[in-house]
Amino acid sequence: MFVAHQDSAQGDLRVDEGQTWFRVRHHGSKVPDYASRLEIMRKDGHELHVITQSPKLIDAHMRELCNGHVHFYRPRGAAYSKRYQFEKPELSVNENKYVFPSGEDTRVPMDSAYFGCYKSVKEGTKHHFKFRIPRAALVLGFVALVVGGIGYYLYGRLSGFEKAAEQPVAAAPVAVPAAAAAPSSAVAHVTTEQYIAERTPRLAGVPSSAPIYDELTKPVTFPKPSCYATKSEDVIARKRKTLKLGNRHGRLYGCACFSQQATRMDVEFNACMDMVENGAFDNTKPDRQQRADGVTDSLREADTPAAASAVSVPVAVVATAPTI
């Protein structure tokens, strides 16, 4: 059958389960005609794509003529595959290796829309490619639950001891004057409109913005940005909606800033990159030499010849996410 395809019109030839057509031969045996035709198939206008379970199952004559090898690996039946590409057949792909110096790897999500386009098993047979949680992850989750339970138990015991040690002293009853017991006519009457206005949020969808909560929502801190930048094309493609994009040093960069509470901050691209490359001065953070009396050691010793000034410079970390 394959010999007939060799004489077909120009175009691509695709062979599934290629090991059934290009079997491994004994050393010294005669090279079959179909293998010899592979040497001049480009002159006939053909390009051959062979799908197999392992390159070791393919005839060595064909492997020597192959100028491209793509290997797919689906870890534990996950919803994505790892795609490795080599210039020549890599015979060690099925030896539980995940890093190949001679190949390039990318992560390819599996689109369920194509699941019905190809039947890899006989109808009625159960598919065995289902996602399996690694045993190490299960053990780690169990250990985390045990440690959390022990910590909760110890915290409860310690809290009980502290409450027992802090016995409150009963306060003596205070006599209330008769005049104070009567309701005061000086208390302002709250109208229905005022009552509703105090409980109506200033910002739609933010209940805490109502005036009645003003005393409870006074700020006790402020957002401190931590920024990172990446030039990885894969990361930029996956996180395009969350990154500020722009050109830097002739390349496309993505940049984002987060507060100390891990909330995303709306910082424009140039400002974000400036904080990544140069840092940001925090005037609320005291110097390391700051003394209790408010005078730094460097200022106290400035009039001596051996005095040396120390400057604390914040460091910005540039995080370039690796290609997954």
From TrEMBL:
Domain Zona occludens toxin N-terminal: 13-123
Chain ranges passing through the membrane: 136-155
UniProt protein name: Zonular occludens toxin
Keyword Zinc attached: no
Pfam families (UniProt xref): Zot (PF05707)
Keywords (A to Z) from UniProt: Membrane, Transmembrane, Transmembrane helix
Regions annotated as coiled coil: none
Top-rank lineage group of the source organism: Bacteria
Keyword Transcription: no
